Amino acid sequence: MPDKQPEISADQLAVDHISSLPMHIHRILWSSIRLPMRAAFHYDPDDPLTVSVCLHPPESPAVTWVISRDLLYEGTQGPTGIGDVRLWPSLTYARSVVYMRLESHGMAALFEVNLPKLEGWLLSTFDLVPPGTELDRTNWDLLVERLLDDA
């Protein structure tokens, strides 16, 4: 076992800090029934178009959804999404929230997320990979080569 631990740069620490947002959210079961739960939003600059949302329901296995980063941000600004993922900002008990409705196989779940925390974190991911530059680092030749190899 090596005596020396690998060095971690300040840039890497900044990326690790920005790339994850653990928070408490609520699952809305009924207008007056809100189930608190943990969630973690993860952003990987190497997969710059998406955010993984890991939901940790109490006494159940974790569930991960992959959502477009742009869609998630648009949901902090106004209603957006069709199909499996829908988001819209709102005020609840004088708090700014984003409602996130996730649907799969005919079943849906509604979640309430702290809007200022989510929006601030998403803006910090834009510092890592600015909007419109997500595909700048893509090696298109390698991608085409891999696609042709699979054909």
UniProtKB/TrEMBL annotation:
<dbReference type="InterPro" id="IPR038658">
    <property type="entry name" value="SsgB_sf"/>
</dbReference>
<dbReference type="GO" id="GO:0030428">
    <property type="term" value="C:cell septum"/>
</dbReference>
<keyword id="KW-0717">Septation</keyword>
<protein>
    <submittedName>
        <fullName>SsgA family sporulation/cell division regulator</fullName>
    </submittedName>
</protein>
<keyword id="KW-0131">Cell cycle</keyword>
<comment type="similarity">
    <text>Belongs to the SsgA family.</text>
</comment>
<dbReference type="InterPro" id="IPR006776">
    <property type="entry name" value="SsgB"/>
</dbReference>
<keyword id="KW-0749">Sporulation</keyword>
<dbReference type="Pfam" id="PF04686">
    <property type="entry name" value="SsgA"/>
</dbReference>
<dbReference type="GO" id="GO:0000917">
    <property type="term" value="P:division septum assembly"/>
</dbReference>
<dbReference type="GO" id="GO:0030435">
    <property type="term" value="P:sporulation resulting in formation of a cellular spore"/>
</dbReference>
<keyword id="KW-0132">Cell division</keyword>
